[in-house]
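Deviations from the work plan: none for this task. Representative record:
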Amino acid sequence: MARINSAAELEELRKDILSKRDPDQPWIAVCAGAGCLCLGNDRVISAFEEEIRKQSLEAKVGLRATGCHGFCEKGPIVVIYPEETCYLEVTPEDVPEIIAQTVIEKKVIDRLVYTDPNSGEKATHLSEIPFYRHQTRFLIGNNPKINPKSIDDYLAIGGYSALAKALFEMSPEQVLAEIKKADLRGRGGGGFPAGLKWETARKAPGEEKYVIVNAHEGEPGAFMDRALFTGNPHSVLEGLIIGAYAIGSHQGFIYTRHDTPQLRENIDIALAQAKEYGLLGENILGSGFNFNVEVHLDIGIFVSGESSALMRSIEGKAPEPRPKYIRTSVSGIWEKPSNLNNVETWANVPQIINKGSAWYGSIGTERSKGTKLISLSGKICNTGVVEVPMGTPLREIVYGIGGGIPNGKKLKAVHFGGPMGGSLPESLIDTPLDFDALAKLGAPMGAGAMLVMDEDTCMVDIARYFLDFLTGESCGKCVPCREGIRQMLKIITKITKGKGKEGDIELLEELAGAAREAALCALGRSAPNPFLSTLKYFRDEYEAHIKEKRCPALSCKELSASEGAKKNG
Amino acid sequence: MGEIIIQIDGREVAAREGMTILEAAQSAGIAIPTLCHHEKLEPYGACRICTVEIENRGRTRLVAACLYSVEKDLVVRTRSEKVDKIRKMILELLLAHAPDARELQGLAKEYGADKDRFEKESSFCILCGLCVRYCAEVKKKNAVGFVDRGTRREISFIPEIASKECWNCKECFPLCPTEALQAAYVFTEALISSSPSFELESEE
């Protein structure tokens, strides 16, 4: 790999890569995302390798182990290009037939394509499957097309052209203005305008400034950042470098989890390749701009994702939110201006620079622009990673993409944002996916984990579950959070066991109020959210548990038993 | 350092730039309760008992007085219905762990906190971190630290350091807002459990 020294050389290299690729040549994309790997896709990949070797097809057929395709429910997934034939639930035994029939003979194997469970209709191509058809996959859609370990694959789909444009055709101020105009809002949970944050860091006094990727995806039911970053690491890295240029930073950090080795490996490879090509390091693309990136791993606690705790962790200290009323964009890591954005936020940057803020602003709602990645899970037919334009009604996500609720059950609620988020009842299912609309209803979008619940779900138990999660994931430093969570969990657990008493709801509300108003960090202040939202929309369930010792969903074991006995009796 | 005039409980108070609300109030003889604060230590902001209500640029909110720096036109209320309610709750939560701590009992009387509101879980420690931070910041020994997290967080002496450093120091003991002897107890326990010779002696 030779170093690239100018924008022109980058385009030459791109042409060179593309010239060696025949668009008509068949190639196979096997999903190697976390979900498909769990389902045994590593064996499918090996089977393809073996079959290709056996038939001496190495020169004629390409094979790529790619990042997550999104349709986790139906994994292992295999897509055969150029036709984009999509096979689901593939086993190693299917592989020789796929090679013989589909790759060579161009015939479709009927039993491996998607069949609509209601109409029985088949969908052969990826884009025809309802799960994909109703999405707008600007970010995650590239995953099936590239090998995340190959920078050439990323260059082949236009990668790093936004970086070249920013470095050679735009001033840092112009890049910043473009991001501000696009109204890109932070995807990590707060929805804070990224451009304003960048501007604060840019204007903050001091020569040394840092930019950071928050890849500490920790909430239960969130797996979209991992899918995007593992599957397309360069898209995040490109966004980070552009951001560093706009802010005036020469040192970046990627903060991620210690327990996602596949992501770590792909990040390390991406950094090394970018460095070799001169897209990272000194004098990037010959522009004179210098920028380096270091990777830091967490110690495995949810609060590490809180911005100031994350920065303390990078400093080598315990990940506790710091006790200061000053923004990290002004004073963060080692008290230097530090701009932290989430994986998905950074990944949005290259397309905004390439296509412009006007294009970006045309997607979404008044105050929530672009697309949003959603981790769809729970009681839903199609679990997976979903990308839709902001403003998409939740109904479309649950039914159009998610395929509705399995086993003929009724939808009861959707929960956003994990342990710091809230639940919305079925009656609000036409609410648009929008930062402000959801926050107003008490179910802030968070990072985009969307948990679907059916009629068998007990909402009191949901609140209990998230509090239980937090007991070990808060740092335990401040009293309203640590002790508030402890007591709220005790009271709610008693309620689910039929030992609730008059006044419990009021006491829970008081505890929730103290945590919301007086806790040190965002985790503590939002820890009561699941309780507050379930109380808001499902107060009758709390009352049934307390007053009638009854679980309306028949989910709480100690209460359902007596209910069942009553029914049978 | 410039002087800033702020208002605390209706009184005009002159403060130096960079001072916290707590320092400004103390300099004017206005009391704000604290549990985890110590003038020799870095602000910590864990107990939240010093929560006060502030008003600035038309916004009212609650902040920790030990952390929030004074700023021009700041209006501070050290007591209000909201503030008192939060302090009462914090005390009740802490009294579940250290019901006999005199400092907590005194404050409980002031704020009408009920020491029996929550089920007792007597650990005696309220995790104010005074001992931990004093040892780290003033003595620079790190003989005592926090272990575990969330609701399982506790303090623990590090036997290898404590057995060398603590006998002639023990300066953290009187800092404990709940029970000075408690620190000694945890300390001794750490030494016993880590010392095989100690166990042998007790078996004999």
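Chain A touches chain B through 33 residues (CB under 8 Å).
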